[in-house]
Design a protein that fits this description.
2 strands, Putative membrane protein
């Protein structure tokens, strides 16, 4: 199994387990939103939180890979890439390799975003079951900052990996 797909399957499984765990332990009234400082600023029902997080998870963990697969069908019209890169990777002799690599890269990015969502489910469940109305310290900025840094690193790696050879 390719690394991106393995990461996606792992994160998707963990996300499903976290939602089941949250459904089992959360009270009827749960925090549904935290401000940047980690304080609860909105509450909802357990059902609406779980349905919302389930739909967002499905959109990210299944929707991004499906969108990538749809974008690589046909002649590549739906791909937004520099012309030289597109011409290189969509040449008949490289198109199959491109699809495999691109799909795996999108699976990896879905897993990265899914890991952020998994952390949100775990944190919301922890806050909802602990009786607290906030998270300690700078948890939210640290989590978002880590995600942004990982996304930048992923993007730089992607730009390098798909750069056509010189000449």
């Amino acid at each position: 199994m390719r690394p991106g797909r393995l990461a996606l399957v792992t994160v998707s499984t963990a996300y499903a387990v976290a939602l089941v765990w949250a459904a089992a332990v959360l009270p009827a009234r749960v925090p549904s939103h935290l401000d940047a400082a980690g304080r609860v600023d909105d509450w909802s029902s357990r059902t609406s939180l779980l349905v919302g997080m389930g739909l967002v998870g499905l959109l990210v963990l299944a929707g991004i890979p499906l969108l990538g697969r749809a974008a690589t069908r046909g002649d590549g019209t739906l791909l937004n890439m520099p012309r030289a890169t597109k011409d290189y990777w969509l040449a008949p002799e490289r198109r199959a390799e491109f699809r495999v690599r691109f799909h795996d890269d999108l699976d990896g990015f879905s897993a990265l975003t899914g890991a952020l969502l998994l952390a949100v489910v775990v944190l919301m469940t922890w806050v909802g079951t602990s009786g607290r109305a906030d998270l300690p310290g700078a948890v939210i900025p640290a989590l978002v900052g880590a995600y942004v840094l990982a996304t930048v690193a992923w993007t730089v790696r992607l730009l390098r990996a798909y750069r056509p050879p010189a000449g």
